TrEMBL record:
Pfam families: SPL. GO terms for molecular function: lyase activity. It comes from the Bacteria. NCBIfam families: photo_TT_lyase. Transmembrane segments: none annotated. The gene is splB. This is Spore photoproduct lyase.
Length: 353
């Protein structure tokens, strides 16, 4: 191997650029709609108009799989009509809808089932309506604090260079005595958010995992070292920081994998990060429907989804999910909790589910 090859820097994960962009005609009445239109034109992207962001039916592709892959590279710019927010337990009271869909290809992602036949990416231009609705939810609960989760249906950091919406929500919450924001990301493109006036009302979380999980199940997202570097920048910008270890996956060598994860966080994060740090832990779960979809979309996946090995947990609305047997779940929870407290004794563990 030539020295040139050995020393050539590894290219970083690039920002998302769609192949196709659809606009609802009314979206052009908003400055955000116009800005995205200009951006798409400058990028030389194929632009179409559509009557509704909920009805993109003519995506190219000869097979279901091909259509799915193209949908993941399709951006739809529209107006958010439903302003009733979903609840978002246990991490927040409400989900704030600024985008739907994601360009990542995480095999286990629940969006595969929740978005059904509409895996394309939607961003909404009517931010005043969305923030107005958030204001009402905040006012209803005063003097309680109301927390909003911005990453329930998307990874908004990965779309920020296109929409700029996350910064708007961060700055809105910065001014709210009783409103707080949180979101999680697997992308490292945090630059546009570093100078936002967050007033420490936004908890910026990164999704992290054992190497085995990131390498095998998270294609199309930023690499671990990129996420950690970004977490350092975010901590230096004064944001409260958090990590979500999810999905926690039982695999050969999991103890070493999760111990190394915590060790790397400890070694690579700047001192500021430890000041106000939270961890959330979510064990891997799947439904029967999810399993069917995942096996079709990622036929070679190594994701273990053997119902026989799992415990069935009844759901509130019908279909339950398969989680780890208690013994395994306890072992994962106890081991990772110990590792967290060993490295970050001041951190708060919010939940394990
Ligand atoms: S980055 Fe998050 S939202 Fe996107 S595919 Fe992966 S798990 Fe799903």
């Amino acid at each position: 191997m030539s020295t040139e090859l050995l020393t050539r820097p590894v290219p970083g994960t690039t920002v998302f650029v769609p192949e196709l962009v659809y606009f609802e005609p009314d979206a052009m009445n908003y400055s955000k709609g116009q800005k995205i239109y200009e951006w798409a034109k400058q990028q030389g992207l194929e632009i179409h108009m559509t009557t509704s962001h909920n009805q993109i039916r003519d995506l190219p592709g000869d097979s279901e799989l091909e259509k799915y892959r193209i949908a993941k590279r399709t951006l739809v710019v529209g107006i958010r009509k439903t302003l009733k927010f979903d609840t978002s337990k246990p991490s927040a009271e409400y989900a704030i809808p600024i985008a739907t869909g994601c360009m990542g290809h995480c095999h286990y992602c629940y969006l595969q089932t929740t978005l059904g036949a509409k895996p394309y990416i939607r961003v909404y231009v009517n931010m005043d309506d969305i923030l107005g609705a958030a204001q009402k939810y905040i006012d209803e609960r005063v003097p309680e604090i109301t927390r909003f989760e911005a990453a329930c249906t998307s990874d908004p950091v990965g779309l920020e260079h296109i929409s700029g919406s996350l910064k708007q929500v961060i700055e809105f919450m910065g001014q709210q005595e009783h409103g707080r924001l949180r979101f999680v990301t697997k992308y490292h493109h945090v630059e546009p958010l570093l100078d936002a006036k967050h007033n420490k009302h936004t908890r910026f979380r990164f999704s992290v995992n054992a190497d085995y999980v990131i390498k095998n199940f998270e294609p199309g997202t930023s690499k671990f070292h990129e996420r950690i570097e970004a977490a350092g920048k975010v901590a230096k910008a004064g944001y409260p920081l958090g990590f979500i270890i999810a999905p926690i996956i039982w695999h050969e060598g999991w103890e070493e994998g999760y111990a190394t994860l915590l060790e790397r966080l400890y070694n690579e994060l700047p001192a500021e990060a430890a000041q106000d740090l939270t961890f959330e832990m979510i064990q891997h779960r799947f439904t029967r429907t999810a399993k069917n979809v995942i096996e079709k979309r990622y036929p070679k996946t190594k994701l273990e989804m053997d119902e026989e090995k799992r415990k069935y947990k009844w759901g509130r609305w019908g279909q339950g999910k398969y989680v780890y047997q208690d013994e395994q779940a306890n072992a994962l929870r106890e081991f990772i909790t110990e590792q967290i407290f060993d490295k970050f004794p001041q951190a708060k563990i919010e939940y394990f589910t």
